[in-house]
Amino acid sequence: MSGWHTGTLAQLAADLRARKFSSVELVRAFLARIDASQATLNAFISVTREQALSDAAAADRALAAGSAGALTGVPIAHKDIFCTQGVRTTCGSRMLDNFVSPYDATVVAKLKGAGAVMLGKTNMDEFAMGSSSETSFYGPVRNPWNPQLVPGGSSGGSAAAVAARLIPGATATDTGGSIRQPAALCGITGIKPTYGRVSRYGMIAFASSLDQGGVLTASAADAALLLREMAGFDANDSTSVDTPVPDYVAALEQPLAGLKVGLLREFFDKGLDAQNEQRVREALKVYEQLGARLTEVSLPNLPLSVPVYYVVAPAECSSNLARFDGVRFGHRCESPRDLTDLYRRSRGEGFGAEVKRRIMTGTYVLSAGYYDAYYLKAQRVRQLINADFTRAFASVDVLMGPTTPTPAFAIGAKTSDPITMYLNDIYTIGANLAGLPAVSIPCGFVQGLPVGLQIVGPHFSEARVLSAAHAFQRVTDWHTRVPQGYA
Amino acid sequence: MSAWETVIGLEIHAQLATRSKIFSGSATAYGAPPNAQASLVDLGYPGVLPVLNAEAVRMAVKLGLAINARIATQSVFARKNYFYPDLPKGYQISQYEQPIVAAGALDIVLDDGEVKRIGITRAHLEEDAGKSLHEALPGVTGIDLNRAGTPLVEIVSEPHLRSAKEAVAYMKKVHTLVRYLEICDGNMQEGSFRCDANVSVRRSGAHQLGTRAEIKNLNSFRFVERAINYEVARQIETLESGRAVVQETRLYDPDRGETRSMRSKEEANDYRYFPDPDLLPVVLDAAFIEQVRATLPELPDQKAARFASQYGLSAYDAGVLTGSRELAAYYEDVVRELPQEPKLAANWVMGELAAALNKENLEVGCGRLPAARLAGLLRRISDQTISGKIAKEVFETMWSGGASADAVIDAQGLRQITDTAAIERVIDEVMARNPAQLAEYRAGKDKLFGFFVGQVMKATAGKANPAQLNELLRKKLA
C-alpha cells in the first residue's frame, strides 16, 4: 500500500477494483492519518469510525461481487454543513452540537450511492460564516503548511484534510469563496459549480441565493470525478437546474489551444500582494505556452461585489437562521422563564459572535425604511455585476486571476477586524453573485505558502473550466506538493 | 341618514383543497393526531427546502379567472419574517409585492335588490402556520404542525363594503365561489375559510378614510356580522366622545360579543419581507392560463341568470337555488324529470326539502331523497292526484321511510278525489248534517264557508280536490 495516500481518487478506485488493497485497509489507513493529525490541524468535528469501517466492509463485498460503482470503497469526508442521517451535523455551531440529522443531504446520498465511504465530518466556520475557519465552536482549523496560519474558510476543515492527505477528497460549500479561498491557501484544487448544478437539499443554508456545494481535491481530475457523481437536478431543490451532467472526467482532455482567456483588470489591483501576483502571472505564461490567447478585460462593477455581498448574504442568513429557536431541535437554554427568554438565551448561547454580527446586519438591511436603500440597491448592483460577466463572456471563454490577495495569514490576525477579513473574498465573491462556476488551482508558493489561480467560466461550463485546470496540472506539479510532515 | 359611514375591507383566507401541502408532500387532511402530518420540511429542519405544489397554483389561477382578475405571468414568493413557536422556519412563505392574482371583482346583491360591485385588490398564495395548543397540556404550550404549510389563498378586497351585512354578503359570495370552483371545502368550523376584517368609520361625506382596526380570524358569518357591528359602534362611540381610534389589531370574543385589542401599530412586527431565494418566480404562460380557464365550471352568477331566464324564476329564487353547485344540480335534476313545473320544483326544493335537510343538518347531496323521488311526488301534485297539503304528508313519509311517492299515496289511500259527483255527494251529506250553519250562512254569515270546506275535507280525509271543492260548494250553498 505504498503511496496510497497521495493516490488520486481515480487511482484509488482502480486499485480497489483491482483488489490491490481492500477498502477496509484503505479506510483504516486514512483513519490513522486523521487521528494522528487531529491535535495539530483540528480538521474534523466528527470521525465516523465504526460506520466507515462497516461501510468499507460492505464496499469490499460489492467489489468482490463485481458490482462496484465509480467510487466504491473510496474514502471521503463531508463538510459538517451537509446533513448526514444518524450522524451529528453541527455546522460548526454550538447551536447544533446535539443535532443528529434524520436524513441525508442529496449530495451525501448521491456520493453514498456512488460507493464512497464517509470517514467523518470536517470542521468549518460557524454556519459557513468566515474566511479563516476560526469561528467554529470546535476551535480553529490549522493550515498544514504552517499550523500557526489559517487554512482559509469557511471550508477550512475539508481543505486542510485534503492538503494533508488525510482524505483524498471532501465536499465543501462556497457562498463567497468558501471552497476556492481555502483551496488557494492550502495548495489544493477546489471547484464551486454553477449555482443550481449541485443540490442544496440537506446543505444547511447560509445565504440561499449564493450557496453552492462543490468539492476539494488534490487535482482537477479528482474534482471532475467527484463532481460528476454529486451534480445533477434534484426535485427537492427548486433552484437546482434540470440540465444533463456532462462526463467531466471524459471532458478533461479537451484541447486547450485557442482558449480565449480574459484577465480581470479589477483583480490585478493595488490590494493584490506583489509576490502573489508574480505567481499568478507565471501561471498565465504557462497557459500562453499551452496555446491560450490572453486578453485583458474589465468588469467595472466588480469592485462593488464585496459591499453587495455583505448586504445580500447577511439578509438571507438573518432569515435562514431564524429556525434555530430552541423549539424543535438544536440548543435550548436551561429552564426558560417564558417564550422570549427561550428565544433570547437559546440563540444568544447557541450562536457565536460572527453569526450574530451577520444576523444583526441582515435584520437591519431588511428592516422597514432600510430595505430599499440596502437590500434592493444591492440586488440592483448584483444585476449590474451579472451583466458585466455576461458581456465579458461574449468575448472570452474563461476569466483568470488570483483567488486571494495574499497567501495564508496568521490565526487571530484578522479576527478583531471583520472588514479586513471580509476583503479576503474580494476576488471570489463575484462568481457567487453571478452564479458562475469557478475553480482555484495551486500555482506556486510565496515564502513556502501556496498561492491559487482562479478560473471562472460561464454558467454550466464546469467541463471547460476543469479541463483548463487539468491542462495546467498536466504540465506543472504544484498540485502534487504535500506539506512537510504529511508526505 | 346616519352621521357616520362605515368602511370595511375583508382579507379572506381560503384553504386550498390540495391533497398535499403547498411546499411539502405531507397530507393536508383535517383531524390527524398532532404532528402526524408534519414532515421535515414542515418542521423547518436544517437544510430542507420548499418545493411548490403546482396544484395550488392551478387553483389560485382558477379563482383569479372566476373573479375576472389579472393573472400575473410572473409572481414571486416572499418571506414574512417573525418569531412564533408555531411558525417553524421563523418566516411564513407568502406573496408580497408580486401576487399571482390582481384586480378582480365580485358582485353582491343588496337588500333592496341593487347589485354592488366589490373590488378585489389581489389574491395571493401562502402557507398556513401551525397551531399552539395552550389548553391541551397543563403548564406548557403544545405545538401541532399538521396545519403548517397548508396552502391558503388570501383574497383581499378593496374597502368597498359599507356595512356588516354587505361584508357578510360578500364573504358568502366568495364562499359560494370557492366551493363552485372546488378549490376550497369551505368548512368554517375547521378553519378552511376565515377572514380578517379591516373596519373604520368616517363622517358621512368625508373622502379620507378613518383610522382602521383589523379584527383577526373570524370563522363564521355570524361572527363577522357581530364583530363588525360591535366594532363600528365602538369606533363611533370613541370618536363622538372626542377620542381617537387607534390603529391596531383586535380579536373578537364570541362569548362576550366584543372585540379586544391584541396589539397596536407600535407593537406590530416589522416582517422584513424579501423574495424567497429558495423558490423561483412562478412563471405562467398564456397556454397554461387558457388551459385552466377551460376547466372553469358555470359560475354562480351565470347559473343564477340562466335559472331565472330558463326556468322563469325570480332573481331571489335563482340566487338561492344556485347557492351551491350541489343544490343547483339537484334542482335541475328535479326539473329534468318534470320540465313543466320549474316553479313548483323551486318552491319544494327551497321549502320542504331545505327545511328537512336543515333540521337534520344534512347536505343536499346526502342522498336521503334523490331528485327523481322528489320529482315523483311533484308529478302527483301536478297531475292533481294529490293536493299540496297531502303532498306535505307524503313528503314526510318519504323523508323518513324512503318509499316512492306513488307507493305512499297508494298505501295510505291518499289519491285526491276529483270526481265531481263524489264531491257533491259529500257536500250534500255535510249540508244535511248541519242545518243550523247552513241557515246562518244563507242569512249572510260568509265566514261559515270555511266551516263547510273543513267539514268536507274532514269527511274525505283531505282528499277532495280543493279547487273543485270550492267551486262546487259555492254553487250548492248559494
Please render the helix and strand layout as text.
The complex is a heterodimer of chains A (487) and B (478).
Chain A: H1 9-17, H2 23-41, E1 44-47, H3 49-65, E2 75-79, H4 106-113, E3 117-122, H5 156-163, E4 169-174, H6 180-186, E5 189-192, E6 212-217, H7 220-230, E7 260-264, H8 274-289, E8 293-297, H9 305-320, H10 339-350, H11 353-366, H12 372-393, E9 398-402, H13 418-422, H14 429-434, E10 438-446, E11 449-456, H15 462-475
Parallel strand pairs in A: 2-3, 7-8, 7-9
Antiparallel strand pairs in A: 1-3, 4-6, 5-6, 5-10, 9-11, 10-11
Helix pairs in contact in A: 2-3, 7-15, 9-11, 9-12
Chain B: E1 4-15, H1 54-66, E2 70-71, E3 74-75, E4 77-81, E5 91-95, E6 101-109, E7 115-127, E8 131-133, E9 142-144, E10 151-157, H2 164-180, E11 193-203, E12 213-218, H3 221-240, E13 248-253, E14 258-264, E15 274-275, E16 282-283, H4 286-293, H5 300-311, H6 315-321, H7 325-337, H8 342-359, H9 371-382, H10 388-401, H11 405-412, H12 420-433, H13 435-442, H14 448-459, H15 466-477
Parallel strand pairs in B: 12-13
Antiparallel strand pairs in B: 1-10, 1-11, 2-6, 3-16, 4-5, 4-15, 6-7, 7-10, 8-9, 11-12, 13-14
Helix pairs in contact in B: 2-3, 5-6, 7-8, 7-9, 9-10, 12-14, 12-15, 14-15
Description:
The complex is a heterodimer of chains A (487) and B (478). Chain A is of the alpha/beta class and 487 residues long. Helix content of chain A is 38%, strand content 13%. Chain A has 15 helices and 11 strands. With 478 residues, chain B is α+β, with helices and mostly antiparallel strands. Chain B has 3 domains: 4-292, no CATH class; 300-412, no CATH class; 420-477, Arc Repressor Mutant, subunit A (Orthogonal Bundle). Chain B is 39% helix and 20% strand. A 9-stranded mixed sheet of chain B has the order 2-6-7-10-1-11-12-13-14. In chain B, strands 5-4-15 form a 3-stranded antiparallel sheet, with no helix packed on it. In chain B, strands 3-16 form a two-stranded antiparallel sheet. In chain B, helix 7 (325-337) packs across helix 8 and helix 7 packs across helix 9. The longest helix of chain B has 20 residues, at 221-240. The two termini of chain B are 56 Å apart. The interface between A and B is large, with 45 and 28 residues.
